[in-house]
Amino acid sequence: MACHIDVHNTVVQRRVPRDGHAVKHIGVAVFNGFSLLDTVSIVEAFQAANRFAQDSQRDAPHYDVRLLSAAGGRIASSSDVFVWTDSVEARGYAGHFHALFIAGGTGVHDARRDERLLAWLRCAHLRSENVLPIAEGQFLLEAAGFASSAGRGSARGRVPHHHSRRDPEPATQREVSSPLESALSVIEADLGTEITCKAAACLAPRASTQFTSVLNRNISGSVSDKIGASARWLEANGDQPISIDRAAGIAAMSERNFLRRFKAEIGVTPSGYLLYVRLDMSCRLLVETALPVDKIARRCGFGGGAQLAKLFRKHMGATPTEYRGSKRQPHDC
Question: Which are the contacts of 13, defined by CB distance < 8 A and separation ≥ 6?
């Protein structure tokens, strides 16, 4: 059975540019049979970059991501999930894309014979800063008269093989980076390595820590909606000063009733749960970043490195530095 999701409308609701911030338009042209996973990874990468840039760079550009198709409307992915798209000819900025991704899929073979689409692609190629094919999308570019270029250079290998208006006669190159890597390379060029690494980390599967099982209890069927909401609020705000009466307010309960219900349903007190949230955050930052221990401690709601070290020795049997050395694998960032 086919199902339908309106990815376009979801993106639009999140892409309201803030005053004074330049908008960079990102287009993803999709065809029937396109890879939903590849397309979603592109959309989520740019949305994650928007979130992190908003927090750290006052004048950072804002990415506006749109799904496009030849005629607009519903397009079926390879998994029979439908997405809603704009027509390629209906965009108000006339094809001036900061990055234009050309997705693959079985529909590309028919698209290669669509002269109107090919004419649009030739025009968009000239006006866009980067044109990046995904899988069979390369065949559509070739049908429009373009070959791909090798764009090597990043130490992390994230710079994709792509077309650029700065390369008028690119050489043919079949091998391409993954769609996510291509999106991250664009983000890195715009916003720098730190934000790119944060965006990549939030899209990657999260490794488990010894606190994961406790933190996952809030999604079990035995936890009420109110207590689950308060647990999620504690997770979302673990890096901030938190009072138990505020958490009780999230659950719309008195503090006394909240403490009793939380312990009964989650298995630990709210204070204990908050501690696990912060320790879990600390474990992840120790493994995934090169930040100093003291900075990690403060980012995770602790007073400083000394307090974090004391808690690590108590709960982990090791110092933060020892934990990092035992768990951390070589990381791009």
Answer: none
If DSSP codes are grouped into helix, strand and coil, which group holds residue 125?
helix
Cβ atoms of residues 152 and 120 within 8 Å: no
**Can you name the CATH fold of 212-327?**
Arc Repressor Mutant, subunit A (1.10.10)
Distances (CA, A) of 16 to 19, 62, 192: 9, 9, 22
Q: Report whether CATH 3.40.50.880 matches the domain 3-203.
A: yes
Q: What is the mean pLDDT of residues 108-124?
A: 91
Q: How many CB atoms sit inside 10 A of residue 180's CB?
A: 20
Q: How far apart are CA 238 and CA 234, in angstroms?
A: 6
CA dist., res. 66 & res. 119, Å (int)? 20
Closest CA to 75 of 88, 85, 66: 85
Q: Residue 171 carries which side chain, given as an amino acid letter?
A: A
Give how far Cα 272 sits from Cα of 154, 211, 276, 320, Å.
43, 11, 6, 19
| C-alpha torsion sign, points 155, 159, 160, 162 | negative
Q: What is the DSSP letter of 102?
A: E
CA dihedral 51, 52, 57, 62 (to 10 degrees): -40
- Domain boundaries, given as residue ranges, for the chain: 3-203, 212-327
pLDDT tens sequence across 56-91: 766 788 999 999 999 999 999 988 899 999 998 776
